[in-house]
From TrEMBL:
Single GO term (MF): phosphatase activity
Gene3D superfamilies noted in UniProt: Phosphoglycerate mutase-like (3.40.50.1240)
The organism's taxonomic lineage, starting at the top: Eukaryota, Viridiplantae, Chlorophyta, core chlorophytes, Chlorophyceae
Name listed for the protein in its UniProt record: Acid phosphatase
Family, similarity comment: Belongs to the histidine acid phosphatase family.
Region (Disordered): 158-187, 406-439, 466-501, 638-692
PANTHER family listed in its UniProt record: ACID PHOSPHATASE-RELATED, LYSOPHOSPHATIDIC ACID PHOSPHATASE TYPE 6
Biased composition (Low complexity): 163-186, 406-425, 470-481, 645-673
Amino acid sequence: MDKRYFPLAGVVTVLLLLAFATWPRSDGSVRGLTSSSTARALVDPATVVYSVDPARGKLLQVQLVFRHGARTPLNQLYDFSVKWNHCRDHYQGVEVELFDENGAPQAPPILDPHTPPLPGNCTQGTLTEAGYGMALKVGSWLRSRYVEQLGFLPDLPGGAGSSGSSSSSSVSSSSTGSSSSSSEGGLAWDSSIATLRTTPIRRTIATLRGVLTGLWPGLEQPTAAGAAAAAAAGQQRRLAAGAAAPLPVGASSEELEIMYGNNNTCARLTPLYAALQADLDAWDARDAELPRLNRQVAEALGLDPEVKINWPKLYDVLAAMVADGSPMPAGASREVLDIIWAQAERHEAALIGPGADLCAQLGPGGGGSSEGAAARRRRCHEVLRLGIGMLVRRLLDNWEAAIASSSSSSSSSSSSSSGAGSGAAEGEEVRAPAPVRSAGAGRSAGVVTALGASGAAMVAAALGGGGGSASSASAARGRSLMGREDEAEQEQGRAHHGAGRGAAAGQSRLYLFSGHDSSVTPLLAVLGQPATAWPPFAANVAFELWQMPLGGGGGGVVKAVGGRRALAGAGAGGGPIQPEYWIRILYNTNPLVVPGVSSAGGWAPLSLLRQAVMLPYAIGPDEHGRVCRTTDISDMLAADEEPRSSSSAGEGSSSSGGRAGAAGARRSLQGVAVGRGRGAGRGEGDGGLAGYQGRYEAAGAVTSSFRNDHLGDPL
């Protein structure tokens, strides 16, 4: 070789080694068999780096959305001779009492009071002992981080570990902003500490009790049977000095549920689910490997290899068996279970959480830029918006109100603390560990590479102007930061949260939302996470709202760098942009990275996260009701596509266990909306629960059991 090329070869070698060292890596592992299989960041974080000094920040609010713990199966389609014996109602934990968060005088009815029996002494969909233990672990993590490490929450009921300004009044005889006092002489609940919310399902209620018990074990009140069992076992239980009343927990009737999509109450979801099912069937038809995988799994588990497997329902049974410690079928090797886990996630998420990565693979062509691909993207977006958009709106509203409250209190105390920029009084600021740096970033901590040249203007606008000096703020500033100028929309949001027995929106330090995989899966899709693993039992997404100091302190800085992909313009005069409010997202206690928006430590400027990620999916309850009544999805279809009729939406599909869907005419779907005119119109103009229920009175005639029949864990 010509010696002239030796230096060039050396440079190329060095560049290749550097690329190999910094290339985003996967650990190569497949989805495991335990609940910790997805307890890690889902996206390699070597994309965005912020200069954030959380040690100077103040934690304002925490919101946690979590799935229930391990439960018994929801179906008996697959029977492996398992006896389910670990689900007695033995839970000894914090007592709770449901109330209707929308102002109805009675608590919403439990939706699953009597479920079909299973072999053993359990019924379908019941939280198991292992599931309750998972809930305790989630609560213990909350306690470790927010009570013991950060001192953000008090140790109830006023234990030695209490910290924060509200610790002395968290559980007291005072009923200020309180909730419930069902036991005479009981202690009242201070809802400024926490607002609790669940779906009215037995397993989510029991899971919430477990989380609360792990968080505040001093509030635990065993049942009579539980106390007797504990005494017999010689256990010493930790009880409050005075018996606390059951903690108030908000819930809603099914038609106002915000935690999952339901085509029984949102008629528009029926043709949308049917269209996505057709897209999924087309994807399956392109997958030459799927018949071989179906046969391999069926033969290994002793099933009929000629019958197409319902992957989500098979996963539902096996995942419950794994969590319960039941013996697995003889042929259930790691390879076989990996196939089931992957196919179940693909077939489930395609309907309830069709994120961008999954949506691009649906249909006969597997994405592309055709009219059909664009129509599929619209359908995927609409399913996410109608399925989880009201919860997204709730999260945003709570942030807005917390910022307004913080800004108002800061303004009122500014005269006595004008010099507080260099530090805060003891107990006023909550300090966090430094964010995790990306191993492959290789950049200084002050640099952010954002969404590319096409998105630079949007990013700069979302982050705001230059890093100007901090000024006294007001509640209006909170609205402007969140981009909420519509007073009617704000009033609607406050009404939907319900005055009831909880604090006003954003007025609690902690918000707990006890839900399902159909809550976590679409939320992860909204946050840009790929559909790589089914959210495990007790999966949880935490949103921490932080306030960083402005000015020369550099509490949180986004610096522009040269180059085409840099943040164009940065602040006024070319200075760095300094967002005041930040969100840190954790998934199963580990940083979650929103691609192109957040750092390796899970940090993202609130304004950018809101505008670029969450706001496109947020929807208020009134708008949700209006959209759900429109069953004509012609605007979601390409010219060569026809929707299935609503009467056939729940019929067969090859990928989900033998459904044979039939295409319906567009006019039949349009006729559905016309036929419902009287029932739908009755709710127009009515406010509150009665009006919303009136709009859906006739919905049952045009919806099907498609969702409930298909999904592994719809509720």
